[in-house]
Amino acid sequence: MPHFISKDKLPLDITLKDFSLEFCVENKTLKTSLYGISDKDNKLNLVKCYEREDSYLYKFPKNARPLSNLYAKNLLSSLASKTTCLSHNLNFTTKHNLSSNTEEVYKNIDIVEIGFGSGRLFLELCTNNPTKNLLGFEVHTPSANQVKNALVLHGIKNATISLNDARNALQALPDSSLERIYMHFPIPWNKAKHRRVISINFLETVFRILKKDGILDIRSDDLEYIQDCMELVLSFKQARFNLAKNAAFNITSKYEARWKAQNKDIYDLHVFKTLDFIQDTKSMQKEANFSFENLGGMLTQKDLEALQRQKILKEGYFISFKGFYTDGSICLLEVILGEFNSPFSTFLLLKDKKLSYFKTPLPTKSLNLAHILLKDLLQTTLKEAT
Fold it and tell me: How far, in Å, CA of 352 to CA of 284, rounded?
């Protein structure tokens, strides 16, 4: 991850070429600070500063990382130039100078791959389907950047890359919109099955967003994982599946090559959506509204500070508050919310009497419910204060 270490702390009265320092808020207990830095397009970024015994470490919080390494390094380099920099990993290489139109906008997507890794399959799918729009999910940032660079190198324009957790992000896709979803060689997590991508909730989303006769394509060397997947699929009336063993496939990933070298069996589970997925109520994705209306004008910093380290558990979702940062007029409160197995991490920002999310949650059922719970909690806090 891009970062730098400085001898002194970044001063607040600095002028940057391509960015503007908006604020710096602190958590004195944790000995950390958050710098709010906007770019020429008024996009706000957060850079975290960790105070050490004799130095300061600067990097992006995990829940506020830019997808582009070039962008991240440009910003951090601008900051490092205003300090006595002791060390950094901000050198620019050819691959980092490549750019890509990979905004996380999930519109008109036809094909999805979850966990594309080295990107062999994803790149081949993009090349073989030039009239289709593809969306690839990969939470491992170096792999995502590697594939992003390859897309630029090969002039591929029909692909979007996302670092989001697919379990959340897929819920933002419209009904009956996808032709195919690929999941090749996911980590089986046989000893921690709650960590798997596939679950009843995940399959509900899959059958909602797949078109009729659309396919979920699962490929794995782990028989227990495949058997568990089949058992889950059997819970749905609108699905059928077929299973193949050691079937030929025209693209060999590095993992598949390794398993074949060890004479492991490879299983292909093709799950078909046979009926339209009917929901009894209007999709909550279309109803999601993550605004706080006028709450920001009534809340004080003490109201938000009192929430830190609290956790609220409900059936199917939760809210957990972490560190609180302030400079006396602006404050940030880290919050984690949503499903237990795929939570969403962001910050609440209270500035100029307006309350908002630093990064807006995806329009999913669990995040919408968590947001409603959060608003109720804030309104209760206001009532108790009066």
Answer: 30
Amino acid code (one letter) for 311: K
Residue 289 to residue 316: CA distance in whole angstroms: 19
Nearby residues of 327 by Cβ (< 8 Å), 6 or more positions away:
23, 24, 25, 26
The whole model's pTM is what? 0.68
Helix axes 141-153, 120-128, angle to 10 degrees: 30
CA-closest candidate to residue 363, choices 301, 289, 311: 289
Burial level of 48, CB count in 10 A (0-12/13-18/19+)?
Answer: middle
Band the pLDDT of 92: cuts 50, 70, 90.
Answer: low
Distance CA 377, CA 283 (A): 24
**CB of 144 closer than 8 Å to CB of 169:** no
**Cα 34 to chain centroid, rounded:** 20
Which tokens is 281 given?
């109520």
Mean pLDDT over the full length of the chain: 88
Burial 212-239 (b: 16+ CB within 10 A, else e): eebbbbbbbbbeebbebbeebbeebeeb
Contact residues for 134 (Cβ-Cβ < 8 A; gap 6+):
109, 110, 111, 112, 113, 122, 125, 126, 158, 159, 160
For residues 267 and 221, the answer to whether their CB atoms sit within 8 Å is: yes
pLDDT of residue 97: 33
Whether 336 and 322 have beta carbons less than 8 Å apart is answered as yes
What residues contact residue 369 under an 8 Å CB cut-off, 6+ apart? Answer: 314, 316, 317
Q: Angle at the Cα of 206 (from 205 to 208), degrees rounded to 5?
A: 65
